[in-house]
Structure formats: structure tokens, C-alpha cells
Amino acid sequence: MSVEYAIIVKNKTRLETLIERFNTRDQAKFYIERLGGNFEDYVVEHDVFHHSLEKIQKQLASTLKNKVVERTFLPNYIFSEKNVIVVIGQDGLVANTAKYSKGVPMIAVNPDVSRYDGVLLPFDSSNFIYGIESVLNNTFNYQTMRFAEASLNDGQKILAFNDLFIGTSSHVSARYKISFNNLTEEHSSSGILVSTQAGSTGWLSSVFNMAYGVAGMFEKNIKLKRPKLKESDLLFAVREPFQSIKTQIGITAGLLKGQNNLVIESLMPNNGVIFSDGIENDFLKFNSGTIATIGLANETAKLVKNNSRTS
Do the Cβ atoms of 42 and 15 come closer than 8 Å? Predict the structure, then answer.
């Protein structure tokens, strides 16, 4: 099936978010500068981003029909085989878009190479069109992106490119039963973090920092080691598990490989949630009677490679 539409996925700039908050640009400037901030940096970032966006739209105009979709609409947007996705933004936007891409090729564009490292952004506004042409000609190479998945017993599911969080929407303890490797325990904790290979240098790394920091107070010469996960591995860690007469701490971390899943039953009457990649407003309710099975998803995403870029 031929590609008919390029869907440009973007997020609001920090300046646009500030103006929404304070109603006008002048009021936003007053607020930032009153606190000693550099308002000009917000302006420069905004201008460079929109220059890149306009450059992309201008080049696409002679090749493909295109339209812009804001990040906030992604959970309800349905991509089709007639689409190619152009993500313009930071790495986090690529990760979030990938979860909804349904295998549609994604061309990730770094809008400001002087500002963003762009680990997941192989293109910029000057060369992205070569990626578009490779998709149209069906000659593109791509990186396969794998996801973690939480599947509920009511049929709902949520994907994560970096990590899943299972816990509460507030700072009270999460209560649940956890089953792993034929063992089951009841827990009271700050929640469970499940990380993919891509997410192992993010939120999961802070769990390691805390664990090694506390252990280092009592044990000398402890060297901090980072987890090296394979693409097909998931690592889960229970955050701040509490031991009591009722709750245990035997299952605090583990590797999920292949069909080896983690099963969690909610014991929370309300406020239980599962969200992915740090997006708290895109979540599943996880309250009493709900059982979540956590494992590697069957779905994958296609991130188009820049063949002229050396890795």
C-alpha cells in the first residue's frame, strides 16, 4: 500500500506552554525574569524549533500531503499503512510516539542539533527528506524498537518504550500481590518499576543510585554498576518495599526474559495506576480485582535509519 500522508508529530515548546499559563508573552517574560531566569533562551529554543518545523513542512509540500498532530492527541490518534510518521522533537517524544505507531515507519528529526544530543534522532531538517524518499521507495532500513507491556485481566493494555510504573497516583504506599518465578508475596511499597533496555539509563538508574548510596554508608569500596540489559530483557525493581507481619520483601528485583512474566494483583481500593514512560496522564486504572501481567510486547516500532550517518 502506497504512502499518502506524512503525519508530523510535535510537542509544544516551553515558550508556548508558558504563554498558555500566563496568557501573554510579556507576562511570561516578566515571571521568568523576576525569578532571575533567562527568558531569551526560551525564545531562541522556540524560534529554532519553528524554523525547523517550517522547513520540514515546506519540503514535504512538494512530496506528500501532511498534517500536524500534537503529542497530547497521540493516545487517540490512529495511524495507518498509508502514513509515514515524522517526529520532530526530543528523544522522549520519539519514545512516546513509538507506542502508538502500529509499525508505521518513523522518521525522527532533531530540530536543534546544538541543543539536543538526539540519541533517537538520526535526521535533521536538512536531510530528513532522504528518509522520506527511502520510505516512499520502500528502500529504507530501520531500527526495531521493543516495548514492555502491561496487560490487564479486563483486556486493557499499555506499552512502554522506557519503563512502566505500577503503584498509586499519590505518595501513599501501593498494596498488591506479586508473583514471579513460582513465588507469590503480598507487598507494601512505593510501587514497581519495570525497565526496558532503552530505559535502563533513565529512571531505573536512579534506583541503582539510591541502593548503592545507602549500601555505601555501611560497606566500603562498593562500586556502582549499571545494568546491561539485552533488547529482549526487562528488569523490574520494587521501590522501597516494607516488611511487616502482613507484607514481605523476598521479591524485590528480577529479570523478565522471553515468556517469563511478572503478575501483579492490585489490593488497592482506589488510586492504583499503571503508566508508562513518565507520562502520568496516560494511564490505566489499577484497583482491587485488577490483575496485570507484565512482559515483553509482541508489538514493535520501526525507526528509519539515516544511511548516510555512521553509528
Answer: yes
